[in-house]
From TrEMBL, chain A:
It comes from Thermogemmatispora tikiterensis. Coiled coil: none annotated. InterPro entries: AAA+_ATPase, ABC_transporter-like_ATP-bd, ABC_transporter-like_CS, ABC_transporter_ATP-binding, P-loop_NTPase. Keywords: ATP-binding, Cell membrane, Membrane, Nucleotide-binding, Transferase, Translocase, Transport. Belongs to the ABC transporter superfamily. This is Glycosyl transferase family 8. PROSITE patterns: ABC_TRANSPORTER_1, ABC_TRANSPORTER_2. GO terms for molecular function: ATP binding; ATP hydrolysis activity; transferase activity. SMART domains: AAA (SM00382). It holds the Pfam family ABC_tran. The lineage of its organism: Bacteria, Bacillati, Chloroflexota, Ktedonobacteria, Thermogemmatisporales. One of its GO terms (cellular component) is plasma membrane. The keyword Translocase applies.
TrEMBL record, chain B:
Pfam families: ABC2_membrane. It is found in: Cell membrane; Membrane. This is Transport permease protein. Belongs to the ABC-2 integral membrane protein family. It comes from Thermogemmatispora tikiterensis. The keyword RNA-binding does not apply. InterPro entries: ABC2_TM, ABC2_TM_bact-type, ABC_2_transport, Nod_factor_ABC_transporter. Residues 28-254 form the ABC transmembrane type-2 domain.
Length: 253, 256
């Protein structure tokens, strides 16, 4: 088993003349929660699509679970699950049928049991036999997450997993993510919510103008920020302030 | 890769099962797909029929093959719509990020389309029977008809896959079907080609619908089929291969 769950070197990707990724580099250790931050349009989804074999990079290398995302795409797919930015659930099927379908596609022995366990865990047992078209946004998102956990792949990609959830739903997702990491999975998540990264992540990277402009633990990132000033009350910088400060510096120079 | 091969049929079964559920849970789509052809059949038989010199006593028998093709063309547009929805909703991305034989994603939809169109054609035959359709064909000719219609459906479904994967809007995904629905009108499907002006007639006699319609018409009547069956098969196989090739390109391009 490689030590690094994800290794990315000098990754480039453009859509025609729009340069989205321009030399992205980072690595994620196994069993960690890694949060990728970036403003709208920074290229977070693009990066996740490359790592989950949906999109080919223009140049550079990306290894997931030790496998090359281009040359060994099939092996990468065995190692990952993806929860996209928008809930990818089958509207015409029921919640249970959605889960059973994924369990069958992952060739699990007891698809029904797996489905029922996940329904229970995500509080969807009552709605299990209703069609997803009748689910609320939050229920869809929970089902979507549940579908990603079928078959226990070692690396999980979550693209803005809590966008559109109410505060309670967010806390639930946070709990699940923490549990998964404790169980040894590697979680790669993107988020717009800086407090989410602050709450969850072991390591945080900031993607801006095509590059990772800062990465490290929250403590390390805080050091990049001018020390706490005494105003009326002493106040530690939040990640949001760090983020804005770093982006501000980059744009000045 | 070996494991992908091993699970090909199991994955295909799951995908087909999913698509069939979609079909049986939206029966309204079958009704919509049969309404236009049935309406046309009523129109031609009860309104225009008396004025058209088809040379056959039973005009329902005469128009039925063309009605079949209209039904298949409008039926396969649902494959475009379903694929388009899969792409839009992100379900396609979810499947593609999983260790599944990629071709099963498309074949599931394609095989389901055969079932969908099979049901819609059956409904049309039942209505035609009520309207006085009678066939002298035995078992073998009927099998040949079913086989030819299945081939046409397969061909048009692979054509429908292309806009399903590439369209930018839901209307764009369905619009390919309109010219296909229109094609039977400039063929031998409803009126004999000899009544048409020369240019139109030349087009009508050399487009695939005429060969297919004439073949099915002969089979239904229990008459020997002409050389046209080979022309019909050649058209279908040619278009099928082309469409299959472009559909795969469109699918691959999504990963570029
Ligand atoms: N298929 C595409 N074709 C052309 N441009 C694209 C395509 N997908 C994304 N882009 C552009 O690439 C840039 C990065 O998009 P991406 O979706 O990766 O950003 P993001 O960081 O996920 O943003 P958000 O926070 O809004 O989800 C954006 O400017 C977007 O418009
Ligand atoms: Mg995004």
């Amino acid at each position: 088993m490689p030590d690094m769950a994800i290794q990315v070197r000098d990754l480039h990707k453009s859509y025609r003349q729009l340069k989205v990724l321009q030399g992205v580099e980072f690595a994620v250790e196994q069993g960690r929660i890694f949060a990728l931050l970036g403003p709208n349009g920074a290229g977070k989804t693009t990066l996740i699509k490359i790592l989950s074999t949906l999109l080919k990079p223009d140049s550079g290398t990306a290894l997931v679970n030790g496998f090359d995302v281009i040359a060994q795409a099939a092996r990468v797919r065995h190692s990952i699950s993806l929860t996209g930015q928008f809930a990818a659930v089958d509207e015409l099927l029921t919640g249970r049928e959605n889960l059973i379908m994924i369990a069958q596609l992952r060739h699990l022995k007891q698809p029904r049991r797996v489905a029922d366990e996940l329904l229970e865990r995500f509080g969807l047992t009552e709605a299990a036999n209703r069609r997803v078209s009748a689910y609320s946004g939050g229920m869809r998102r929970r089902l979507d997450l549940a579908m990603s956990l079928v078959g226990t792949p070692p690396i999980i990609f979550l693209d803005e997993p809590t966008t559109g959830l109410d505060p309670e739903g967010r806390l639930e997702v946070w709990k699940v993510v923490k549990e998964l990491a404790q169980g040894g999975r590697t979680i790669f998540l993107t988020t717009q919510y800086l407090d989410e990264a602050e709450q969850l992540a072991d390591r945080i990277a900031i993607l801006h103008q095509g590059r990772i402009i800062a990465s490290g633990t929250l403590q390390e990132l805080k050091k990049l920020f001018p020390p706490a000033r005494v105003e009326y009350v002493e106040k530690q910088p939040t990640l949001e302030e760090i983020f804005l400060a770093i982006i501000g510096q980059k744009e000045v120079c | 890769m070996a494991t992908l091969q091993r699970y090909f049929f199991s994955d295909l079964g799951v995908m087909l099962g999913r698509s069939l559920r979609h079909i049986f849970r939206s029966m309204d789509t079958i009704i919509t797909a049969t309404i236009t052809p049935i309406g046309l059949m009523l129109l031609f038989v009860y309104v225009f029929g008396g004025a058209i010199q088809s040379g056959t006593a039973n005009y329902v028998n005469y128009v039925l093959p063309g009605i079949f093709l209209v039904a298949i063309a409008s039926g396969t547009s649902y494959t475009s719509l379903r694929l388009f929805t899969d792409v839009q909703r992100g379900i396609m991305d979810r499947f593609r990020s999983m260790p599944i034989a990629p071709s099963t994603l498309l074949w599931g939809h394609v095989l389901a389309s055969l079932v969908f169109n099979g049901i819609s054609l059956l409904i049309i035959v039942l209505v035609a029977l009520l309207m006085g359709f009678r066939s002298a064909a035995g078992i073998l000719p009927w099998l040949a008809i079913v086989g030819l219609l299945a081939l046409v459906t397969l061909t048009l479904t692979w054509v429908a896959v292309i806009p399903g994967l590439t369209a930018r809007s839901i209307d764009g995904a369905a619009v390919f079907a309109y010219p296909l629905i229109f094609l039977p009108f400039i063929s031998s499907a409803f009126v004999p080609t000899r009544s048409m002006p020369p240019v139109v007639r030349a087009f009508a006699e050399h487009q695939p619908v005429t060969a297919i319609v004439n073949t099915i018409r002969a089979l239904l009547a229990g008459e020997p089929v002409s050389q046209e069956i080979w022309i019909a098969l050649a058209w279908c196989l040619g278009i099928l291969l082309l469409a299959f090739f472009f559909a795969r390109m469109a699918y691959k391009k999504r990963t570029a």
